[in-house]
Fold LysR family transcriptional regulator.
Amino acid sequence: MRRGYQFELRHFSYFLAVAEELHFRKAAERLCISQPGLSRQIKQMEEILDVELFIRDKRNVSLTVAGAYLKNEMENIFNLLEFTLKQTKLVQKGSLGEVRIGFLGSAMQSVLPDLLIKSNEHMPQLQFILKELSNSAQLDALEKNQLDLGFVRLTRVPPNLQLKPVYTETFSLVLPQSHMLDLKSFTTIAQVATEHFILFSSDYSSLYYDKIMSICEDKGFTPKVTHKSVHAHTIFKLVESGIGVAIIPTSLQKGFTMGVKFIEIPNIPQRAVLYALWKKDNRNPALQHILEFL
């Protein structure tokens, strides 16, 4: 690092704006400064670091490998800084702080309400922000310090994250109300082998998707998947319309009043496991209180 200059917070704000826009004029407009002034600040930053952060030509701006690394790290730092300042204000007001929780829809039907009730009983000063997100979105947000705790269906995560199984359940078949099968006549998933299937997208949870496929394959058929969604309500609506059948974690049937019926699938080894997930080096003291209730 070259001497003679000092970093200021504005350098990093300017850098992030250009790194996100990949366009100096747009970044300058976003920052409400002149384009030449922004270019000088970025050049100064590169001189201080003695590192090239951007590749520039007449038409395009792109990040160097070093620039991409710095962008990722600065996003984490700024997220942490913003959250720390917010927590400081909450503590001043007598709160124990705020916990940002991401979750899959099924967590709201099982684990999450119980966790929030326990927290409110024992630590009413805690505050929460809840966001329904896919597995991959939760991973990304945890890595960037935008979430403190996630509820996912994953078995492999980066080594800096901690997984803990918190809820294990069966799978259920979802049928239109008018379907000939019912609790008495249903014995095996093979009875719907010729039906069209509506499943959660593999992008939403590849682990869940693979388990559904294995449930069917164990009974001698590969399901004909005609529709995929990331929302349970959408899946149930398609089933209600007679477009196909679905397989879901059993707890997802709670909270919905639609023209469908649920039948728990008997005699299968597969189970839907919900995991709590958090960053091992998370420094939010409020998170530690919540982990005690898991």
